[in-house]
Design brief:
Layout: E1 18-26, E2 33-37, E3 48-49, E4 52-54, H1 61-73, E5 76-89, E6 94-106, E7 117-120, H2 136-141, E8 147-150, H3 159-171, E9 176-179, H4 182-185, H5 193-206, E10 210-214, H6 219-224, E11 227-230, E12 248-253, H7 256-264, E13 269-272, H8 288-299, E14 303-306, H9 314-319, E15 324-327
Parallel strand pairs: 1-6, 8-9, 8-15, 9-10, 10-11, 11-12, 12-13, 13-14, 14-15
Antiparallel strand pairs: 1-4, 2-3, 2-7, 5-6
Length: 334
């Protein structure tokens, strides 16, 4: 793992014991996810959960996960990446769960502790249950697309060409788009921006993609689309009640202070950067992958990497704890 050792999510100061757990989202190529039912001799018997267990002293997260999955399921992990570290408070303790995606293994998962197993579709109603409370958030996060395209049309004269590129990107699998046009909004052509937004939204809807609206644009647009993406300077004044469910709220963060604000408003995901140099912010300093991984490990929700990202950087982003990548140019067809 490239994520720095010792990166953990802070937990509230309480008298309850804190248990560190490595949990695996074992995923087939078709997206099917493995769940296990807790045996009768363990707490919460009969409830369903993600396989995994306690992190022992001296173990990294991925080492603990590999050991637990061998002991529980008799499989050998060959490919796993960190994902989200999430803190959940139970009546008797606090569990800090380091969720990891497991996409490669040897062997056939077998319930060595007598537990039942089930492959489920996280994009459909889960057919087994009840689910442990801490298992529900990652199942919801899995539905979030891994590619986040941000528009960069800038001028009405570019719209026709951009819409062609957008359709191609959607045809290639992009399912999450952010409408973000600050230059256009502040220009003499601002009155043409709303019709352009409607065209982008309609193209996204036709492709089954979600379209969020950057917070620089009117609030009425946020609910017409599928939610809002907050600029860092807008997080503090945001009230979650303005968004109906299931509208999404994303937020751009660059440091611990902004991340804490995003956590306070319960943002569904955060975008962290800029990680690498990018043409849209020439000359600006970048944080690099190590600082990104530190912030991602503290986010407690899915994280997108931004700044110099393309489909070629997706694996690197995953290795540093990213759910996916966000880009203006990097996700458009050449």
């Amino acid at each position: 793992p490239i994520v720095p050792e010792g990166v953990v999510t802070p937990v509230p100061v309480m008298s309850k014991p804190v248990i560190d757990v490595a949990a695996g989202l074992i995923l087939k190529p078709d997206g099917a996810l493995l769940l296990g039912q807790r045996p009768a001799d363990k707490p919460w018997p009969g409830w369903w959960e993600l396989p995994g267990g306690k992190i022992e002293a001296g173990e990294t997260v991925l080492q603990a996960l590999a050991r637990e999955l061998k002991e529980e399921l008799d499989i050998e992990v060959t490919q796993a990446t960190p994902w989200v570290t999430y803190v959940h408070e139970y009546p008797k303790n606090i569990v800090r769960l380091a969720f990891c995606k497991v996409t490669g293994w040897n062997g056939v998962p077998t319930g060595l502790e007598g537990q039942s197993l089930a492959w489920v579709d996280p994009n459909a109603p889960i057919e087994v249950g009840p689910l442990l409370p801490a298992t529900e958030p990652p199942l919801r996060w899995l539905r979030l697309p891994s590619q986040y395209l941000i528009t960069g049309i800038q001028h009405p004269g570019n719209l026709e060409t951009y819409l062609i590129q957008l359709k191609k990107a959607l045809d290639r699998g992009v399912r999450l788009v952010q409408f973000r046009e600050p230059e256009w909004a502040s220009s003499d052509h601002a009155n043409t921006l709303y019709p352009a937004f409607q065209q982008v939204l309609n193209i996204c809807r036709a492709a089954g993609a979600q379209c969020l609206v950057n917070s620089t644009h009117p609030k009425a647009w946020w609910t017409e689309g599928d939610g809002v993406h907050l600029r860092a300077q807008d997080i503090h004044d945001f009230e979650r009640s303005v968004l109906p469910k299931p509208h999404l709220c994303g937020a751009s963060v660059h440091n611990n202070t902004e991340l804490a604000l995003a956590q306070n408003i319960n943002a569904d995901f955060v975008v962290i950067g800029h990680v690498c140099p990018t043409p849209s912010h020439p000359g600006e300093s970048v944080m690099g992958w190590r600082q990104f991984a530190t912030l991602a490990g503290q986010a407690g929700r899915p994280v997108f990497a931004i700044g110099g990202q393309t489909e070629k950087t997706y694996i690197t982003a995953q290795e540093h704890g990213a759910h996916g990548i966000a880009a203006i140019r990097g996700l458009l067809p050449a």
